[in-house]
Amino acid sequence: MTFEQLGLEAGLLRAVSDQGYTEPTPIQQKAIPAILQGQDILASAQTGTGKTAGFTLPLLQRLAENKTSGKRIPRALVLTPTRELAAQVGESVITYGKHMPFKIAMVYGGVSFGGQARQLRQGIDILIATPGRLLDHVSQGTVDLSAVEILVLDECDRMLDMGFIHDIRKIMGRLPDERQTLMFSATFSKPIQQLAHTLLKSPVQIDVAPRNITADRVEQVVHPVDRHRKRELLSHIIGFHNWQQVLVFTRTKHGANRLAEQLAKDGLKTAAIHGNKTQAARARALKDFKQGRVRVLVATDVASRGIDIDQLPYVVNFELPNVPEDYVHRIGRTGRAGNEGRAISLISDDEMPLLVSIERMLKQPLTQDVVAGYEPSFSSDTSAVKSAAAPGKPRRQRPRRSGGSTSAPRRSGASARG
Ligand code: AMP
Fold it and tell me: Residues in domain Helicase ATP-binding (predicted)?
């Protein structure tokens, strides 16, 4: 199947071929024709499936085909959960729309309100926004949403997780009823289904990545290790394999900072991104990471949303996420569109129940590999935990002390230094 066969017009085909895409991804094959026909869609697709182009290309074409009121107020609105994702979707819209006459703006928090208001006043066609900042503009009267023809809700599950439901509903109240709505969500929880029910009109359902199937190009390995030796093991692995671009997940902002500091002390160029950092600091860290000036980027789940790096080869779960679905989100950062990826998880005793929940969701056990010199002081047999722990409920366990904690590791992180 080719992009031509999907019915896209010449300017878009040119933009697609400029990007070097030769074939539409599965979500694009399904979403593009449905959106071009004006249908609402409810799509389950993870980041990395090509979903952004999947909605952006037909959205641009619809705007070009539809008659406009002549007023330069937003005709398409894309809502995203985070600033990073808004910025990245915005960049994609600019990239795919470069041969079209549309004006595009992004509004999100953390940057000057006035500058955004000025841009909105000058007239735009497509607006990409996070819900909170958009509502600020709505209440200040700096944006008029009455001409929106197409609404996209990107990473909807994440918007609900972040508590944006009321903001989303308020924004809906400002939009025309007569519109096309496209909803994307990695998971289909009850609240997502309820929202879909109220917002979508006979939607086409597209399901390219069932939530319990992870990107099959990602090799997943679990390293059981005592908690207090995790940092040392991580330095060792990065140095031993000479990994040059590694995204590491921690559960908390504080944990991200602390780990970044410790890895820096091990001689690894490291940056941390999380919600307490300014937008400028997050953008800088991401840029340094993309350009190879930073070797290890430590991130929390929320801050990592929408990190879009082609060919990101390694993802490390320094700690497992509390929600199994987040595991899929995290490892979806690697193994994207045609590239192989590797995801490793460092698991301590207290995380065994989380591992069990993840394996249940994936419907497969994950390969375990004990690193020589870092043997854990606990049993990592998940079949034992399965029977002991209540389903999905993390069991609290006091980590046992490792007898070998003071002995030197067999292979130190020294190869990572310098
Ligand atoms: P997304 O799921 O939208 O975050 O896209 C993931 C990555 O796939 C992005 O880096 C896109 O540039 C890339 N991509 C999107 N569509 C295609 C395609 N048809 N062929 C190859 N790469 C693509």
Answer: 32-206
